[in-house]
Amino acid sequence: MYFELKENKPHGTKDDPFSIYHMRNGGRSFQVPVHWHDEFEIVYVKSGLLTVSISGENYIGKPGDAFVVSPGNLHFMGSQAGAVDYFTFLFPLKYISFRTDDMLDERLLEPLNSGHLMITPRVKDTVKELCQQLIEIYVTENDESQSIITAQIKTKIVLLQIILEMWKQGFIVENDTSGRNTIEKEMVSYIQQNFTGKILLREFGAQFHLSEKYISRYFKEHFHITLSQYVTYLRLEHAKQLLQDTDISVTEAAMQSGYQNVSYFIRSFKKAYGVSPLKYRKN
């Protein structure tokens, strides 16, 4: 199962930079491939067991647990059991900044944004009730029973309460992980820039001074997904976006996404998303 990610696109909108994604899977095991973004992210597990990896550290999230992904940190989520229900909340830290250059901005929010401070990834269930409040605001907003301004005020209040709780619990610490995952981030960037072409193991390994034999194992060990699976994910997501946003043919979408065999693309697309490319576009 693939989830739609928007790491190369802006999250939220200019009028409302806060984004909430509800991820629910009751079937087979899945993994949201490794990625990063400039926004601050909170991952909240509603039910099931969720494997979360942040900056190379692996965690198992239980119902009520929350995890924090600081801006720029590599991370991915998944479940071997398959049955899991979780939410992610994404927002730029300036969303909750008062922009007054006061002590809160100068000594807490700005250092968090720049990476000099970080929040420990696992904050357990200390913000469970606050995460539930964010979900309730989201549900109410979708029901259109409140204005966007009302929802934003409520959302910012809750997010500041979450930051306050993390401060009180001692979860905000100096960042001693700067410089880590540099090679991994460069690998991901290289693949994201070249996935529509042919990525040869020899050239990929040489790019990072690793042997052709070792590069595949290195990638699998660090990202819990094979290189070919990651390339396939990026190609299918790219094709899906083309089908959604343009009027080009299915064949052209396949070609622009790195597929030379259209029949294979259609089979892969249907296996990943449960519908054919043409039906996806119509729906």
Describe this entry's structure for a reader.
The structure is a single chain. With 283 residues, the chain is an alpha+beta fold. The protein folds into 2 domains: 156 residues, Sandwich (Jelly Rolls); 101 residues, Arc Repressor Mutant, subunit A. It is built from 10 helices and 11 strands. The protein has a 5-stranded antiparallel sheet, with helices on one face. Strands 2-7-4-5 form a 4-stranded antiparallel sheet, with no helix packed on it. It has a two-stranded antiparallel ribbon with strand order 9-11. Strand 4 and strand 5 form a beta hairpin. Helix 5 packs across helix 6. The longest helix has 21 residues. The protein starts with 18 loop residues before the first strand and ends with a helix. The N terminus is likely disordered.
What can be said about this structure in brief?
Pfam families: AraC_binding, HTH_18. This protein has about 280 residues and is of the alpha+beta class. Helix content is about 45%, strand content about 20%.
Characteristic key phrases:
2 domains; 283 residues; alpha+beta; Jelly Rolls; globular; HTH_AraC; HTH-like; disordered N terminus; 11 strands; transcription regulation; Arc Repressor Mutant, subunit A; 4-stranded antiparallel beta sheet; 5-stranded antiparallel beta sheet; AraC-bd; 20% strand
Give the helices and strands, then pairings:
Blueprint: E1 19-25, E2 30-35, E3 40-48, E4 50-54, E5 57-61, E6 66-69, E7 75-79, E8 84-91, H1 103-114, E9 117-119, E10 122-124, H2 128-142, H3 148-168, E11 172-174, H4 182-194, H5 201-207, H6 212-223, H7 227-245, H8 250-256, H9 262-273, H10 277-282
Antiparallel strand pairs: 1-8, 2-7, 3-6, 3-8, 4-5, 4-7, 6-10, 9-11
Helix pairs in contact: 2-3, 5-6, 7-8
